[in-house]
Specification:
Order of helices and strands: EHEHEHEEHEEEHEHHEHHHHHHH
Oligomer: single chain
Shape: globular
Distance between the termini: 40 Å
Radius of gyration: 21 Å
Largest sheet: 10 strands, mixed
Length: 353
């Protein structure tokens, strides 16, 4: 058995994914690039996931299993990273797949271009339907360095979709992650299940000096099942907004404030729609939620000063004035408009689950 240091460590957090985890792991182990380790972090699964992983590990020594209590995907990735030995790091979610030759393609680029991170494109799937992502041509297929990397792309973490902020679909130099970890935490005790991808990359970005964005599709992202309950992790997005505010202040990144406030507003309305759909919340309950959330949020307090004397759209105006009647009306319009889309998604999930 070889004891040489693997070149790439692939970290895969899994939780109750017995039906699909083997497909994910095989998509990694069957890559043309063979000098790797696959660290699967079983985050307290209560189904047959762990036994399936053990069967695969018995057949391929490159698969290593960390079995731990359930603490969320962020801590699972953190534990996998601590155990990794590779020179480069790749993250994959247990319900997704790597495209054929993904690791070789990413590795060839990171060596050739000598960059800290290579970012690939993904293929999003829902049943038989697929959609390929593409980066802005201005930034694709070239080496991006400072100051452009900071001046033009840090805004991506405030809600502007320029740089893909997900943790997957990328190859990282381990040295860059290690350097960042000496003075900054890339994993949060508060952001553990929602926006944890973005948190990692947002906190890593100040330590990154170069990236390369390729148009090659290296990752297959599988849309999960149809949501059937209210997402209790919405509160993490609100915590994330206050974290972003502090970073914008610290780095004097002035152009980030406006897009952050728009992102916060959109999050509030998305939360309201979920409460209407899954909690059957009425107007009074939405009013109570808004009073509690807006009353304690630093982001909302800063929004008032930012927009004073400026014209805003209908949604933002209603939110700033805390006009519950208007917010309720606007939310109902969105809810009615999305009925057909929700129905179609349920049908697709039913026939192709």
């Amino acid at each position: 058995m070889s004891t040489a240091r693997p070149i790439i460590s692939v970290i895969v957090p899994v939780y109750n994914q017995e039906k699909i985890v083997k497909r994910c792991i095989n998509s990694i182990l069957n890559q043309d690039f063979q000098n790797l380790e696959v660290i699967v972090v079983n985050d307290g699964s209560i189904d047959n996931t762990l036994n399936i992983l053990k069967e695969v590990a018995n057949q391929d020594h490159r698969l290593k299993i960390i079995d731990k209590k359930n603490e969320g995907v962020s801590r699972a990735r953190r534990d996998g990273l601590k155990a990794s030995k590779g020179q480069f790091i790749c993250f994959v979610d247990g319900d997704d797949n790597l495209s054929p030759n993904a690791l070789k393609n990413l590795y060839d680029i990171i060596i050739r271009e000598d960059v800290d991170i290579v970012i690939g494109q993904c293929i999003r799937t829902l049943g038989p339907f697929t959609k390929k992502t593409y980066c802005n041509k201005k930034y694709s297929e070239r080496r991006i360095v400072l100051p452009e990397l900071w001046d033009e792309l840090y805004i991506s973490y405030m809600g502007v979709n320029i740089l893909p902020v997900q943790i997957w679909g990328k190859l990282y130099k381990k040295d860059v992650i290690d350097r960042a970890m000496t003075s900054s935490s890339l994993f949060s005790d508060f952001i553990r299940s929602m926006a944890d991808d973005e948190y990692f990359n947002m906190m890593l970005h100040p330590f990154v000096e170069s990236i390369f964005i390729t148009n090659q599709h290296v990752y297959v992202y599988r849309y999960g099942g149809v949501t059937t309950s209210y997402n209790k992790h919405f509160k993490e997005l609100y915590e994330m907004s206050d974290i972003r505010i502090k970073l914008l202040d610290e780095y004097h990144y002035e152009k980030g404030y406006n897009v952050l406030y728009i992102e916060y507003k959109n999050c509030i309305f998305s939360d309201i729609l979920q409460r209407m759909e899954y909690c059957h919340s009425n107007k009074q309950q939405i009013e109570s939620f808004l009073k509690e959330e807006l009353g304690k949020r630093e982001t909302f307090k800063r929004m008032h000063a930012f927009y004073e004397g400026k014209s805003t759209d209908e949604d933002m105006s209603a939110l700033l004035s805390q006009d519950t009647d208007k917010i309720w009306l606007l939310a109902n319009r969105r809810y009615d408009k999305g009925r057909m889309r929700r129905w179609l998604k349920k049908c697709i999930h039913f026939f192709y689950r």
